[in-house]
Write a structure and sequence with these properties.
Elements: H1 17-30, E1 41-44, E2 57-66, E3 69-79, E4 106-112, E5 115-116, H2 118-125, H3 131-159, H4 161-184, E6 189-197, E7 208-217, E8 220-227, H5 239-254
Antiparallel strand pairs: 1-2, 1-4, 2-3, 4-5, 6-7, 7-8
Length: 255
């Protein structure tokens, strides 16, 4: 919604629950609302600034309008066939920095009037190995947004804008109450887990420590992660991974 809080989520890879609101937050940092028009869309795949899991997950974020006003946002991502860089599909095991992995889109406006901008289309098709499937994947996400905009408009036509916002608020409140109720049934205390990443990504077996401290106090809980410093391989985790995996674990264990 306009507060960048999730109303609904659908996906086969649950930890992408984090990439959606982080992606919208990225767009909101880069642009002001008065700069954004109906049909604008933003390309996202940068794990460091835009909430992606890795560069192979390319997302399209688009605003949803009603009567000329932004009433929400849509986030759709796909693992596209190729994103340039030194290896296919954003997986570059030999890379030692993010610049060698793939192109990074940090929430750039590449879609105007509901279509991929021709300048961006030319740039992308010259920087990926299989331009037709990649461009068609991006177009499919844009088409899905058009469907989302249409269905949201019909929903608001039926319930009214005030009614839509009221039901969204009720949905969020009930969800929070349910999660807090589940958390309150866990005994207060600290729960600590230790594990290791057993491979450095470059052929050397070594133990990279990782720990998680889960603190429960009443109906609130905190995750605190500690681990090895960042290394020059693809085994590092960015905020989207930490948030997405934590939220997914809560979803599976509590609900």
């Amino acid at each position: 919604d306009t507060e960048i809080e999730q109303i609904a989520f659908s996906g086969y890879v649950a930890f992408h629950v984090s990439t959606s609101f982080l992606g919208v937050e990225c767009v909101m940092r880069n642009y002001t609302l008065d700069e954004i028009q109906p049909g604008d869309g933003f390309l996202i795949n940068d794990p460091y600034s835009a909430g992606a899991i890795h560069q192979g997950d390319v997302a399209v974020v688009m605003p949803y309008f009603y009567d000329g006003e932004i009433v929400g946002w849509g986030h759709i991502d796909e693992h596209v066939l190729d994103v340039g860089g030194s290896a296919v599909s954003g997986f570059a095991p030999e890379a030692r920095d993010c610049f060698s992995e793939a192109l990074r889109f940090p929430g750039v406006r590449a879609i105007r009037f509901g279509e991929l901008d021709r300048e961006w289309r030319r740039f992308i098709e010259k920087n990926v190995r299989v331009p037709d499937p990649v461009l068609n994947d991006i177009r499919s996400m844009i088409a899905a947004h058009h469907t989302g905009q249409d269905r949201l408009s019909r929903l608001i036509d039926e319930y009214g804008l005030d009614g839509f916002r009221q039901y969204c608020a009720i949905n969020k409140d009930l969800s929070e109450q349910m999660v807090r109720g589940k958390l309150s049934r866990i005994p207060d205390g600290e729960y600590v887990s230790h594990d290791w990443v057993e491979y450095d990504g470059h052929g050397v077996a070594q133990l990279l420590p990782l720990s998680c401290r889960f603190v429960v106090a009443g109906d609130e809980a905190t995750f605190a992660f500690e681990g090895h410093e960042q290394i020059d391989a693809f085994v590092n985790a960015t905020p989207a991974v930490m948030l997405g995996q934590s939220m997914t674990t809560l979803l599976c264990q509590l609900l």
